[in-house]
Design a protein that fits this description.
Blueprint (H helix, E strand, L loop, with lengths): L6 H32 L6 E2 L2 E2 L2 H12 L1 H11 L2 H4 L3 H16 L5 H21 L4
Antiparallel strand pairs: 1-2
Amino acid sequence: FGEFLPYWVVAVGVSCLSSFSTVGGFILQKKAVQQQMASPSRWPRIGDMALSPQWICGFVLVVGLPLPGSLLAYALAPLSLLSPLSGFTILVNYIMAPPFLGEKLQPVPDTIASACILVGTVLTTIFGDHG
């Protein structure tokens, strides 16, 4: 990538994609649990949790994809630049949870807190160590 894009840009992009994967996986898992509560299924169980294909796909999105992405990102950019991007996961959740899970946002404090997280994440990415 070094010839076309700085490594830190690739690392930030990979980290952001990992955030989408994490939130998407949590959404799939929550929907699977909600479906299980509405009508018990035939899937194997661990306690109250049914291991349906939807839940397992969510698990892979939460654990399987972000882990290699994080390893790649941390190999390409400093920890001080990438760690604040965990706030991006919160912003993605703020955007994706209401339409996919029917969750209701509270203007105060959700919107105000998300705006603060966005500003902090952007500032640390812009002014962080790119070396």
